[in-house]
Write a sequence for this structure.
């Protein structure tokens, strides 16, 4: 999914654009979805792609919503060496929206912690 920077700016809030298109990070412990506990699914705020299920969400205490697993093939992984660190960036596989990073310090069964910016997600409640 390719859109111009201007099209994304028209579609997204200033903060959503800064995080998803410019690879920003929301302040820790500030996101609306951090303590969100309803059952449902989490989708890309830019294109609507289903990225995570609520059953894989956990409280990592890191300040951002965390999941131990993504929906298969819906997240793309890129090496990120910015800020003097070596990390794995996670992007929406459909529109390349920056979601956050994944770390190898999560719970079983995967051992993964997908650390995701709330503003990059839209929640859809199970019906």
């Amino acid at each position: 999914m390719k859109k111009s920077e201007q099209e994304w700016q028209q579609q997204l809030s200033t903060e959503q654009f800064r995080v998803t298109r410019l690879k920003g990070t929301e302040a820790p412990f500030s996101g609306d979805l951090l303590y969100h506990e309803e059952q449902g699914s989490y989708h890309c705020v830019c294109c609507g792609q289903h990225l995570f299920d609520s059953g894989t969400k956990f409280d990592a205490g890191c300040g951002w919503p965390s999941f131990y697993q993504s929906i298969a093939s819906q997240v793309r992984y890129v090496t990120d060496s910015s800020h003097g660190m070596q990390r794995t960036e996670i992007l929406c596989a459909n529109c390349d929206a920056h979601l956050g990073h994944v770390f190898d310090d999560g719970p079983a069964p995967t051992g993964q912690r997908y650390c995701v910016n709330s503003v990059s997600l839209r929640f859809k409640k199970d019906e």
